[in-house]
TrEMBL record:
This is Protein serine/threonine phosphatase 2C. Residues 601-621 have a biased composition (Low complexity). InterPro entries: PP2C, PPM-type-like_dom_sf, PPM-type_phosphatase-like_dom. SMART domains: PP2Cc. Coiled coil: none annotated. PANTHER family: GM14286P, PROTEIN PHOSPHATASE 2C. It comes from Ascodesmis nigricans.
Length: 621
């Protein structure tokens, strides 16, 4: 709202206290022009399922600088808030500059911070302590919530964090995990598992270590299914491949190992999409049908890492647009180099679009506005059966179970595949390599280089405080990054210890700057990062959501679902640290970097299997 119009509105309220009532206030403000302060960027959810007539998502030029937004706010609560501030100034004879706004994090005992969300804008402000806050959406579509304090925001960040110390002497030192929901319930999921594989000779056993992050969409059921069974499907295929190689007394070729991983992915997706239909057609129960079809009707991207400790080979299989990035220290500069281990698979990818057009020639809308058939953003995913079932199957389900009408552009399904692209990397545990795996919610906020640099900075800070994870040889295993040294150049004091290589990153699907950074109006040159957390994954999420800007951090974590999806996605982040440790044969909870409820769960004697990721023994190969 332009300043003169806002002043008129506030004076009107001062002269007519009855207008402070919400209904009267809405009427009074209705005649005042209201600007669109922050046109919202389409959320990932809307991008994935938008109709084919929608236009591609565009970066908003507006920013999330909350002080500026609050100045032009004209929502019910904020109008009251500014009325309160200005009326105090008028009564006391003190003039209040138009630019004087109380930041959310600086709320005084005489007021409380609030967040107001309407159709396309986000406001913050301060109201008197006695002002009632209704958390119900009003007739104008606004929702008002009390802002989290910085302390409350930190508790929310750490609520689902986990950290494990891997004391098995096989190249992995530790891994950290965190999840922050935006959807309710969260559609992301994750899984970790270690399978001990005995040798058929005198060699020590080897570990097969798996980490998976799953970015669900249109529901949580597909990602939950992947958490439950994907590693099992892949491990069975790998087991068969290694057994076949015993005939020639050799190890499987790299191509056969990759093929085994792909086979595990495809067999599971076939069970989800087509096996479910076979089961449903044999039952007359709609309840059973709904439960059986649920993982097929929703969808999920999948990112699975497989580390074989004997060869020190890390394979990363990606289906969709979750991403894995390797951090490796440059021994000369002491800085880190970010190397992407996966390429985002979306309709905006030239290679994915070319593949789809080759598989479906003469179909103009096979990719439209960067989406499959104009509707789905990832070109590879589990589930999403509407893009895989034939028209006959879809019509049968529509008639029997009130399903939806097939997409009129559906001609030659399947259009979406679960087949992953697999990359292989030789890990260097002795040099302290680490890998960050995350759903696209993180990469919408931070670049590959920022993520790797932030972990590098976190390692440096852990060394300063003498944390066990930074190189001690105590109960947690051997030295880890003991010889690491960051740059000591004073000019680099406020910079992240990472080499910038944006050209390579952009080829993998990275947007520079990230899409949310453009939406929020964050300037990349601003000093915006902090190091406050013991959990490396939580550290990344804190900085993705605002870092030093506590107003932004608190606001983004205050936003309730579904409003939060306008500004951030579900977040699942794993950081895997490689290093040589003593072989104690255990995986233990790292309590200082694990939420208390997680510690209580994992150390309960009645549930020993929950104390760490599953540790299994397989038959000798």
């Amino acid at each position: 709202m332009p300043l003169p119009h806002r002043t008129v509105a506030l004076r009107l309220l001062l002269r007519n206290p009855v207008l402070l009532r919400p209904a009267a206030l809405r009427t009074a403000l209705a005649a005042v022009p209201r600007p669109v302060v922050l046109p919202r960027l389409p959320s990932s959810a809307s991008i994935r399922t938008a109709s084919s007539q929608s236009t591609p998502p565009q970066s908003s030029g507006s920013s999330m600088h909350f002080k500026r937004l609050a100045l032009v706010a004209s929502g019910v609560v904020l109008a009251t808030a500014y009325l309160y501030r200005d009326s105090l100034a008028e009564l006391s004879g003190i003039s209040t500059p138009a630019s004087a706004v109380t930041p959310a994090s600086a709320a005084t005992p005489s007021g409380k911070s609030v967040l107001v969300v309407d159709h396309g804008s986000l406001y913050t402000g301060t109201v008197p302590p006695s002002t009632p806050i209704s958390k119900e959406t009003d007739n104008d579509g606004r929702k008002v919530v009390e802002m989290l304090s910085p302390e409350e925001a930190t508790r929310k960040l750490r609520r689902n964090e986990e950290s494990y110390l891997v004391n098995r002497g096989r190249g992995v030192f530790r891994y950290d995990v965190v999840q922050i929901p935006s959807n309710d319930p969260i559609e992301d999921d994750h899984v970790e598992k270690i399978i001990e594989v005995p040798s058929n000779n005198t060699d020590d056993p080897t570990d097969w270590m798996f980490w998976g992050v799953f970015d669900g969409h249109s529901g949580w059921t597909t990602s939950a299914k992947l958490r439950q069974v994907l590693i099992g499907f892949v491990a069975r295929e790998l087991n068969a491949t290694y057994k076949d190689a015993l005939v020639t007394k050799s190890l499987p070729t790299p191509e056969k190992i990759d093929a085994a991983i792909k086979s595990g992915f495809l067999k599971l997706d076939h069970e989800i999409v087509h096996g479910s239909v076979e089961k449903v057609l044999k039952t007359s129960s709609k309840v059973v049908a709904a439960e059986t079809l649920a993982p097929a009707l929703s969808g999920s991207c999948a990112l699975l890492a497989f580390y074989e400790s004997r060869s020190q080979q890390l394979r990363v299989a990606v289906t969709g647009d979750s991403r894995a990035v390797l951090g490796r220290r440059n021994p000369t500069s002491g800085k880190w180099v970010a190397t992407p281990l996966s390429v985002d698979q979306t309709g905006s990818s030239p290679s994915e679009e070319a593949r789809l057009r080759a598989e479906h020639p003469n179909e103009q809308y096979v990719v439209h506005n960067g989406r499959v058939l104009g509707g789905l953003e990832p070109t590879r995913a589990f589930g999403d059966a509407w893009y895989k079932w034939t028209q006959e199957v879809q019509m049968k389900l529509k008639m029997d179970y009130f399903g939806r009408t097939p997409n009129p552009r559906l001609k030659t399904p399947p259009y979406v595949t679960a087949e992953p692209v697999v990359t292989t990397t030789k890990i260097e545990p002795e040099n302290g390599d680490f890998v960050v795996m995350a759903t696209d919610g993180l990469w919408e906020m931070l670049t590959n280089e920022e993520v790797v640099g932030l972990v590098g900075k976190w390692i440096e800070e852990q060394q300063k405080v003498g944390a066990p994870a930074a190189g001690s040889t105590g109960n947690h295993g051997g030295k880890w990054f003991a010889s690491w040294r960051g740059g000591n150049n004073a000019a680099e004091k406020n910079q992240l210890p990472v080499h910038a290589e944006t050209e390579q990153a952009e080829k993998t699907g990275q947007k520079t700057p990230p899409i949310r950074v453009r939406q929020w109006g964050v300037k990349s040159e601003e000093e915006r990062f902090v190091c406050e957390d013991k959990n490396a994954a939580t550290h990344l999420v804190r900085n993705a959501l605002g870092g030093k800007n506590s107003d932004m951090l608190c606001a983004l974590l205050t936003l309730p679902s579904p409003y939060s999806r306008r500004y951030r996605d579900d977040l699942t982040v794993e950081v895997i640290f490689f290093g040589n440790t003593d072989n104690i044969g255990t995986v233990t909870v790292n309590e200082e970097a694990t939420a208390q409820k997680q510690v209580n769960t994992t150390t309960t004697p009645e549930a020993p299997a929950a104390a760490a990721p599953a540790l299994e023994a397989k038959p000798k190969l």
